[in-house]
Amino acid sequence: MSHLANRVRKGFYLDSVALMRLSQSVSALPGVASAAMMIGTPANLKILDEAGLLDAAGRAAGPNDLIVAVRGATPEAAQDALARADALLARPPESAGPKGARNPRSLDAAIAALGGAELALVSVPGAFAAAEARKALARGLHAMVFSDNVPVAEERALKLFAREKGLLVMGPDCGTAILGGVPLAFANAVPGGDIGIVAASGTGLQEVATLIARAGFGVSHAIGTGGRDLSEAVGALTTLAALDAFDADRGTRTVVVISKPPAPAVARAVLERVARSPKPHVICFLGAEALDLPPNARAAATLAEAAALASAPLAEPFDAVALTAEWRAKLAPSRQFVRGVYSGGTLCAEAQILLRRAGAAFWSNAPVPGAAPGRPARGHVLIDYGADEYTRGRPHPMIDPTLRDAGLVAALDDPSVASILIDIVIGTGANDDPAEHAANAVAAAKTRAAAVVACVVGTDLDAQNRAAQVRTLEEAGIVVAPSHEAAARLAIAIAAR
Q: N or C: which end of the chain has fewer CB within 10 A?
């Protein structure tokens, strides 16, 4: 029987990414089943409660308090985990300033200390994010809002305020940006260049930016908008502002726009704005039907096509025909389904679109139009382990792949599965060695008959080094495709009967 224990630290705050990383360290301790560190907002209390990680002490926490929650195999394991968490939280945060410099305790103090700051990255509980972003905008700073759970009405109000001041709001729930070569949040090290990216999706932005880099080209800026920006409620306010900024930027030659299909009226507004630009654009509205594009725009049906149209196709060798034949010869006739185990929601969506275009019915926990209703007992199944139901009370799988690894093992042990799709996303904010996690999961499976097909989103400039990640996967018997599209097409072809 497991033992639950909470500890509340009054008046203590760390941003959510730092807390996720610390939670990962505590979760990895012997005898610990799960662990979470979250600020005691009402939304977070609900998440911890639904995850079975909240006791009476945690319920009494307020929005200015930090809850450390652990579930251990024994009371001793739980207490040891709390002690380890205390030790981790007691370490002074790393400072980018001179040795001995004090960390600013307010936005004004940070602006004064930095001198010439232009952007504020907001990573606080969603209940407070809009207020902090508004403070930054009022002081003339652009704002990147990493926080989620911000009401859509507040998002629109923030973006209207930013428009009045000639500033950008990226987000809420903006996980990726690259500004002037600097990667922010979950992003990759890519060379500078003349291709600009506007994206409502984090992993979609990462895939396109890294494919451009690997084709020998570079990125001027990559602006994340947040997933709701192209909704009817928000009206593409950040997307339109980003298009204005790229028009004015002499260093940007071509602009790529990435999103799931916007609301029809919003799509028209975006394309009308593109038509007024003197620069060529690539429009990738994943899953959209035929678009009425202006003369200066080309449509891309996939992320890899968007990168190729903006730069050049990848020249990396990949014989999908031979690999398909090889794996079909190995597989029993009963193995005929694709299983997707994803950390990137946009990549999962792209796999759904490719399955639908192949005429296959499928189920996913993050469906796009065309997904089969209800989860079938057997069939193609794509799981986004970064979705809310899997990240409540635990780190995102790009930070801690443990839960996604368990999904990989389960797929390998399923006798109906022919091929398994997995994304390995590296870069800032991501796990130090996600390929090793996947390799260990393959080794832990009782059965290894199914083909495991991976894409690695990243570059050799990233700390994890894409080439090293590819080697680790291939040594484990995993097929590595040059792009996510190529991986998905191969997995679908292997499963086809």
A: N
Residue 221 CA to residue 182 CA, distance in Å, equals: 9
Helices (H), 387-433: 388-391, 402-412
At 157, phi and psi to the nearest 5? -60, -40
- N- to C-terminal Cα separation, the chain: 46
Which neighbouring-strand residues pair with 5? 70
Question: Residue 223: what are its φ and ψ, rounded to 5°?
Answer: -105, 115
Scan for tokens 């009206």, then name that residue.
Answer: 235
Q: Is the pTM of this model over 0.85?
A: yes
Coil vs helix vs strand at 409: helix
Phi, psi (deg, nearest 5) at residue 33: -80, -40
**71: enclosing H helix or E strand:** strand 66-72
Beta pairing partners, 453: 421, 479
pLDDT in tens, the chain (497 residues): 789 999 999 999 887 778 887 888 898 899 998 899 998 988 889 888 988 899 999 999 998 899 999 999 999 999 999 999 999 998 755 544 445 555 777 888 888 888 889 999 998 878 889 999 999 999 999 999 998 889 999 999 999 999 999 999 999 999 999 999 999 999 999 999 999 999 998 999 999 999 999 999 999 999 999 999 999 999 999 999 999 999 999 999 999 999 998 989 999 999 999 999 999 999 999 988 888 999 999 999 999 999 999 999 999 999 999 999 999 999 999 999 999 999 999 999 999 999 999 999 899 988 776 566 676 656 899 999 998 788 766 778 998 898 899 999 999 999 999 999 999 999 998 999 999 999 999 999 998 899 999 999 999 999 999 999 999 999 999 999 999 999 999 999 999 97
Choose among 198, 163, 170: nearest CA to 185: 170
User: Among candidates 285, 399, 404, 396, which has minimal Cα distance to 339?
Assistant: 404
Whether 392 and 422 have beta carbons less than 8 Å apart is answered as no
Taking a C-beta distance cutoff of 8 angstroms, is the pair 280, 297 a contact? yes
Spatial contact of 212 and 219, defined as CB atoms under 8 Å apart: yes
Look up residue 187 and give its DSSP letter: B
Question: 10 Å Cβ neighbour count for 345?
Answer: 22
What burial letters (b/e) apply to 295-312, b meaning 16+ CB within 10 Å?
A: eebbbbbbbbbbbbbbbe
